[in-house]
């Protein structure tokens, strides 16, 4: 479905030029931003509910501390979701990212045990993700295998390799790595303390870079064009390079998964072969909640950022309500349902 | 197939075999079975004990029952151009409901209680399938997301049903659904076989199969042609839910423990893999039921082969990946066209649909 980019047919009798212009403007805003507006409204509502229910006399729920904790706990998810946004916008899907996170974590741990220096380990970790992405991209582009199956195969591959590396949880006790994990800038006093650490900086950096690439470069335009739904024919006619771009989005997603693997290792200071089961779904859910259509071509990577925050807030609210952890999944399903229906309603009204 | 390819001379026969979608999966299956037979000499033997069939091959058949049941539903859904990611979660939910019911009745072994438990599980599968169908047809949501909602939430729901516990019961009749024998054949094999025949009859002896393919090829065109695209789509999602619920009961019956977190985990992906190995492309529009049997057998043989070759069982995903990649690449249009163009082109070009 590519309603978001298709020209709108004028409906009914033509109104006066000035009204038409206003309506066209509203329509244009509607078309591109409404799903993201929905995400932002949800975010505000959730923050409002939290502020109402969990603020105490001494501290507000709504604070820099909350934002900083959200980013701290979800930096790996943000990076994954940003990479996934590229793939989804181009009309594909990448199921391998969760398994890649597990593989990268374990390889990182193993390399440290073998005494490899920190920079080498970090670069190798990210490159593992890049290779996995490249493999998917080549299968999709050269051998014309559906993205679902290609990334499924790589998911099995990465999960199997992770199991080969180790089936135990490996602790990472490298000094440099620990220093990187615990480095942070502190702000504020007492209960209002909030901090910025390396993971958050990297995640936000990736997000900003993605905004630049998607909205201000030729590559970004090609990504949107690929998702328009004609197997890249229009993109090709425009003289852009669909083949290279289609491989490119999977390489980006894989690289992001490699980076997320490092971030997750920084977060847990260990590698484990069962991490990341279902993480690809978390990433896809964040992308969908962020207003990107899974059929490709429509969406914003900043929306994905908001989607990740919504995702993280659900977990915070569940924890504050003292509900059992499985409620999280039910709630995320419900929010997903609400968003999908919302997107449908918006899309329906546009027609 | 055009008329010239239907000759009986060896060249065209070879050509037909080499073009067949199931060539690579069948080859892989045969090679794996032979390799296992060479490695462990008793592997291919089938014995009778107390009138029941025993042996590694029988175990393979038994293990293929669950993926086959799931893949049958999945294949029909895929034929309409959709996908059902919720089947793994449905397995967990149906088993949770069945066992919770059994745990609540005074006599879990009574035939009535077992029947109610099974029916409850199946009804829930139908309800979930109807929900998926509603999302896809009435709301027009992409199948991937529509079914992903329950894939995400389903395990949480199953946990709610079992109250976060692993529910365990003892009920020999229920257990026999997964581990018993009928006329010497394991019950799961009988169930899977019967369901396969029923589904095959339903789609190949009635118009349903044609409707499915019509909807999968072009939904709008099929609607204009008078095919009830909506009702057809509903039917397949309900069927997929029902079969997933049945698979959950068959899979979980031997252990009689409803572990909501782990029953059916990643089974939806196994089912999709079986469908793809069986030569059905995810694009929708055409499907091969016979291929599912090959795919399901290949999957469980692969899992067994890893054990026979004394490899750590955790490495199974690795081999699944290798087989999946190999079969997909071998069957990919890019490679096929390269092979096809190698011999001198004296014959008429074969229609490209053969690739499906």
Automatic annotation (TrEMBL), chain A:
Region (Disordered): 1-21
Chief site of localization: membrane
Sorted UniProt keywords: Cell membrane, Membrane, Transmembrane, Transmembrane helix
Localisation per UniProt entry: Cell membrane
Superkingdom, taxonomy of origin: Bacteria
Transmembrane segments: 33-50, 70-89, 120-139, 194-214, 247-267, 287-314, 326-347
CDD domains given in the database record: TM_PBP1_transp_AraH_like (cd06579)
Recorded topology in the membrane: Multi-pass membrane protein
InterPro entries: ABC_transp_permease
Pfam families: BPD_transp_2
Protein name per its UniProtKB record: Sugar ABC transporter permease YjfF
Source organism of the structure: Kineococcus endophyticus
Organism lineage: Bacteria, Bacillati, Actinomycetota, Actinomycetes, Kineosporiales
TrEMBL record, chain B:
Entry's transmembrane regions: 22-47, 68-97, 109-131, 143-161, 181-203, 234-253, 317-335
Membrane topology, as annotated: Multi-pass membrane protein
InterPro entries assigned: ABC_transp_permease (IPR001851)
CDD domains per UniProt: TM_PBP1_transp_AraH_like
UniProtKB keywords: Cell membrane, Membrane, Transmembrane, Transmembrane helix
Source species, domain of life: Bacteria
UniProt subcellular location: Cell membrane
Principal localisation: membrane
Protein name per the record: ABC transporter permease
Organism: Kineococcus endophyticus
